[in-house]
Specification:
Length: 125
């Protein structure tokens, strides 16, 4: 079964998404920041990455671009998750920033679990 890396600095969200995916038969890996997520993506080569945008050490946009810019990892689908929609006026992030990345999809938090699973299944084909 496919392995999915979940990168989010919110352990509760990571656990919720992991439990939902494991119930569908996926193996999950966790990372709690952008740098750890990048390291895990490189060492574990997951089949798909669910990546938070707003993290204190390295944001998801930078992680996404680094992975998508590397031929070894460019084919790994990446879904960005973010609460930017609720905080866009108080952060340096923007919707256009998310759309300008090479991410394969972009979900607003709070994410609807069934929609996320449907998109993961579609991307893993």
């Amino acid at each position: 079964m496919a392995r999915i890396l979940i990168v989010d600095d919110d352990p509760d969200l990571e656990e919720t998404v992991s439990m939902m995916l494991e119930a569908k038969g996926y193996d999950t890996l966790a990372a709690y920041g952008g740098i750890e997520g990048l390291d895990k993506a490189k060492s574990e080569k997951p089949d798909l990455i669910v990546l938070d945008v707003m993290m204190p050490d390295k944001d998801g946009f930078a992680v996404c671009e680094e992975l998508k810019g590397n031929p070894e990892f460019e084919d790994i689908p990446i879904i960005l998750l973010t609460a930017i929609g609720q905080k866009v006026s108080t952060t340096r992030y923007s919707h256009s920033g998310g759309m300008a990345t090479s991410a394969d999809d972009f979900f607003e938090k709070p994410v609807k679990p069934d929609e996320l699973v449907t998109q993961i299944e579609r991307l893993l084909g």
